[in-house]
Amino acid sequence: LCSTQSQYISLKLVLNVIKAGQDALTKYGAGLSSVRFICGTQDMHKQLEAKIAQFHGREDAILYAACFDANAGIFEVLTNQSDVVISDELNHASIIDGIRLCKAKKIRFKHMDLADLEEKLKENQGARQRIIATDGVFSMDGDVAPLREICDLADKYNAIVFVDECHASGFFGPTGKGTEESLGISGRVDIINSTLGKALGGSMGGYTTGPKPLIDLLRQRSRPYLFSNSLAPSIVGSSIKVFDLIMNDSSFIGSLKVNVQPFRSKMSRNGFKVLGNDNTHPICPVLLGDARLAAEMADELLMKGIYVIGFSYPVVPTGKARIRVQISAAHTTENIDTAVEAFTEIGNKLGVI
C-alpha cells in the first residue's frame, strides 16, 4: 500500500489519460529533439499552455521541463539590484535556489508569520519591486499559507505575490484550482508556478501562469525555458487530457476528501501528532522527532505492507523528523484502516504512543 506518492487524485491511472499519452507518442515519437524556440513547439504545446491558463483563470502560461526549472527561471528575469524578494523560510528548495540566482536583495520571513512579513515589507518600501514568495501548501508540513492576508499585505505595500502550487493544483479547492480557490480569493495571486508531476497526471513538467506580458518576457529571457528540450509529446498529450477531465468533473476531488479526514482523525485519536493546519489537505505528516525512530518506523511499516518514507534533517529541521503520509483518491476505506492499524501497532511497539 503506497502512501508516499503525490498523485493525490490518481489521474495517472485513468485509461483515457494513458491512451492520450500513447496516441501522442505514436503520432510524434518519443521526443522532439529541440528546444521550444527552434523546432520543439507543436500545436499541442500551445494547446496545453492555453488550457493551463484557462484552468487557473490567467491570461497565459509557459511550460517548463519541471517546476524546479520554472522556479529557477523566474526571479532572475523579473528582478535587478533595486528589487527585494521576501521569501518564507520554509519554502521549497527550488524557490530558494531560484531566488539565489537573481540579483535582488534576498530576505526571509518567519514561517507564515504575517507580522514578520509586514515588518520586512515596511523596511523595504524604497525598493523598486517587492516580491513575496511562498508555497501555497508546504510539502513537509501540510500547512496552507495564509494567502488572503498575504495578498492584503501585498495590496497595502504594493508588492507582487508569487505562489508555488505544486501541492495544490488539480485537487485543492472546490474545483481543484488550488490554494487561492480553497481560501476564496481566486485571482488575487499575481504569479502561479506549479507542476504536471503530482496531481495533474503524475508524469513531469512544470509551468508558470499569469499576465501575458510576464509570460512573453519569460519566453524571451527565462534560461531554463530557452535552453531545455521541450516536453515529450506523450507527457503533453496525457496532460491535455488531465485538464479536460478536471475542468469538467470534480468527482476526483470528492473521492480524495472522503479519505483524508478519517485518516487524520483516527491517527490523532490513537495518539499520533499529525501536522498541518488544514484537515482537508492530503499531506498528513506524522511527527516523530527522532531521525532514527522515523527511519525504523518506516522500515517496520514496510514489513507490514505500508510504503512510507521517514524524513529527517536536512529535509526537515533537526529534531522534527517525521513520516509524511500522502492520501490518494485511489485509497479505499479498507486501505485507510489498514494503514492506521499498522501505524498504531508499530507505534506501540516502538514507544511512540
From TrEMBL:
Domain (Aminotransferase class I/classII large) ranges: 12-343
GO CC annotations on file: mitochondrion
A Gene Ontology biological process term: L-threonine catabolic process
One Pfam family hit: Aminotran_1_2
Keyword vocabulary terms for this entry: Acyltransferase, Pyridoxal phosphate, Transferase
Names of required cofactors: pyridoxal 5'-phosphate
GO molecular function, one term: pyridoxal phosphate binding
InterPro entries named among the record's database cross-references: 2am3keto_CoA_ligase, Aminotransferase_I/II_large, AON_synthase_class-II, PyrdxlP-dep_Trfase, PyrdxlP-dep_Trfase_major, PyrdxlP-dep_Trfase_small
Entries under NCBIfam families matching the protein: 2am3keto_CoA (TIGR01822), PRK06939.1 (NF005394)
Family assignment from sequence similarity: Belongs to the class-II pyridoxal-phosphate-dependent aminotransferase family.
Protein name as catalogued: Aminotran_1_2 domain-containing protein
Source species of the chain: Angiostrongylus cantonensis (Rat lungworm)
